[in-house]
């Protein structure tokens, strides 16, 4: 597929393909990475004077093409080779999910995915980053680095490899600042510590522990996180590191949380962690247009987005505190079965990174229509020996469903009456890979 070209050369080819069209139909994923990718594309296409229409999808299972001449898929597409092969349009795919086979395009296809270039698509390039590389070939769009990093943060990637280059672009163009500090959402310290999902500090409904924490660190809970002095930030960082140790968080969380604090200068809010929170919360509840508008600079949408976020985070925290005792042990996995929960993926992420990191975690959410949405999560450490995208793909295929994703974070859609069989197969596959 890569035909010896570099990822930048292929991005150039994608830009050339776009330039042969006046209109692009964009489909992207409804999570923070997908929405950020969509915002990068929207800005770049506007500047290139191309018309576009954008839709946010959960996946391509029910996708029906609408006869557009050019379709751009972002944060999806690579895992649907058959479906894509059937589309009679020019196609640009900007994805980082594991490709599931060869696409045999009917017309022109430019497929950009880090996997084709020996680049780590799990940690070193997300869809927003691929969209950014494409945007850079369309024109002077380096200021979009600040939006691109939201996808990197949202997908819990690292600032190494190409991600580090994107960050550098942002710093050079002065739209991003990297300071020493700790990564926490904005707001009053007390509230931020209590309600943060990333990092999750397990203070929700634990007022006494939280008070004790503030007392020990000699910090005023009413102070704004963004206004702490350098010395206070240092004390806070040390205390948060200790807290993470105490609750048994996965060790890889530390480097993501402690040490640096990014600031974005050309978006509605300065704290990218808060922006990711808002975009993610809006996406999860289906308010994708709100999330997208916020990234394009709509103040009114921001107000709405903040309200959605408060409500969403509280729901997730409630769910986490209620469900932690319901987690079941398999041989090589842990799993949780929920019914009609607000967001499988956010809950799975918290459990697998902060509270139960020693085994892969599978969360099943039974929807009212009898379909089951599965989120599987594990740590980078375990994912060195096990590939959850393969586990989800194989186990779901066995029960007539579909699945895939990344080594550390994957998902599947199956039917309720085959759930037991599916879980058994997931456990078996995980044991086999870990053996
Ligand atoms: Mn992504």
Straight-line N-to-C gap: 33 Å
Number of separate structural domains? 3
In the sheet with the most strands, the strands line up as 8-9-10-11-13-12
Biggest sheet layout? 6 strands, mixed
Ligand set:
manganese (II) ion
Q: What is the string of SSEs from the N terminus onward?
A: HEHEEHEEHHHEHHHHEHHHEEHEEHHEEH
Principal-axes geometry comes out as globular
Which CATH architecture of the largest domain? Alpha-Beta Complex
Assign a percent range to the helix content.
40-55%
In oligomeric terms, what are we looking at?
single chain
**Global structural class:** alpha/beta
What is the rounded Rg? 21 Å
Low-confidence segments: none
Number of strands: 13
Task: Output mean pLDDT.
Answer: 96
Estimate the strand proportion.
15-25%
Brief overview:
With 435 residues, this protein is α/β, with parallel strands linked by helices. It has helices at residues 7-19, 32-47, 81-85, 127-138, 145-154, 162-172, 189-195, 207-217, 230-247, 252-257, 272-284, 288-295, 299-323, 344-355, 380-383, 388-398, 419-434, and strands spanning 23-29, 51-57, 70-74, 90-94, 109-112, 176-182, 258-264, 328-329, 334-339, 361-366, 371-377, 402-405, 409-415. Helix 11 runs antiparallel to helix 12.
Overall description:
- This protein is of the alpha/beta class.
- The chain folds into 3 domains: 7-157, inorganic pyrophosphatase (n-terminal core) (Alpha-Beta Complex), CATH 3.90.1640.30; 180-320, no CATH class; 327-434, Diaminopimelate Epimerase, Chain A, domain 1 (Roll), CATH 3.10.310.
- It is 46% helix and 17% strand.
- The protein is built from 17 helices and 13 strands.
- The strands form 3 sheets. It has a 6-stranded mixed beta sheet.
- The chain starts with 6 loop residues before the first helix and ends with a helix.
- 52% of the residues are buried.
- The model has no long low-confidence stretch (mean pLDDT 96).
- The structure holds manganese (II) ion.
- Manganese (II) ion binds at residues 33, 75, 96, 126-127, 155.
């Amino acid at each position: 597929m890569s035909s010896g070209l570099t990822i930048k050369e292929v991005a150039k080819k994608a830009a050339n393909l776009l330039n042969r069209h006046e209109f692009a139909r964009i489909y992207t994923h409804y999570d923070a990475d997908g929405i950020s990718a969509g915002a990068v594309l929207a800005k770049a296409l506007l500047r290139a004077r191309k018309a576009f229409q954008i839709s946010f999808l959960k996946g391509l299972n029910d996708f029906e093409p609408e006869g557009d001449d050019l379709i751009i898929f972002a944060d999806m597409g690579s895992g649907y080779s058959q479906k894509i092969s059937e589309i009679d349009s020019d196609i640009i795919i900007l994805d980082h999910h594991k490709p599931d086979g060869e696409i045999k395009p009917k017309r022109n296809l430019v497929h950009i995915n880090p996997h084709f270039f020996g680049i780590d698509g799990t940690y070193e390039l997300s869809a927003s980053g691929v969209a950014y590389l494409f945007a850079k070939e369309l024109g002077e769009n380096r200021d979009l680095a600040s939006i691109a990093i939201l996808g990197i943060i949202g997908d819990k990637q690292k600032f190494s490899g190409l991600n580090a280059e994107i960050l550098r672009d942002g710093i050079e163009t002065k739209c991003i600042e990297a300071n020493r500090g700790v990564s926490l959402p904005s707001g009053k310290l007390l509230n931020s510590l209590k309600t943060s999902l990333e990092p999750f500090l397990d203070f929700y409904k634990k007022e006494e522990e939280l008070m004790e924490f503030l007392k020990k660190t000699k910090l005023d809970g009413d102070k704004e996180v963004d206004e702490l002095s350098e010395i206070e930030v240092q004390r806070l960082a040390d205390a948060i590191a200790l807290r993470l140790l105490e609750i048994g968080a996965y060790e890889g969380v530390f480097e993501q949380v402690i040490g640096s604090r990014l600031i974005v200068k050309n978006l509605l809010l300065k704290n990218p962690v808060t922006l990711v929170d808002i975009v993610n919360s809006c996406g999860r509840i289906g308010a994708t247009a709100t999330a997208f508008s916020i990234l394009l600079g709509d103040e009114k949408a921001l107000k709405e987005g903040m309200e959605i976020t408060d409500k969403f985070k509280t729901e997730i925290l409630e769910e986490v505190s209620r469900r932690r005792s319901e987690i079941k042990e398999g041989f090589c996995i842990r799993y949780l079965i929920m019914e009609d929960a607000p967001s499988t993926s956010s809950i799975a992420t918290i459990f697998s990174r902060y509270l139960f990191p020693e085994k892969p975690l599978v969360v099943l959410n039974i929807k009212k229509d009898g379909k089951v949405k599965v989120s599987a999560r594990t740590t980078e450490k375990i994912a060195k020996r096990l590939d959850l995208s393969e586990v989800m793909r194989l186990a779901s295929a066995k029960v007539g469903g579909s699945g895939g994703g990344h080594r550390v974070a994957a998902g599947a859609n199956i039917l309720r009456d085959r759930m037991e069989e599916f879980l058994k197969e997931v456990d078996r596959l995980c044991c086999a890979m870990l053996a």
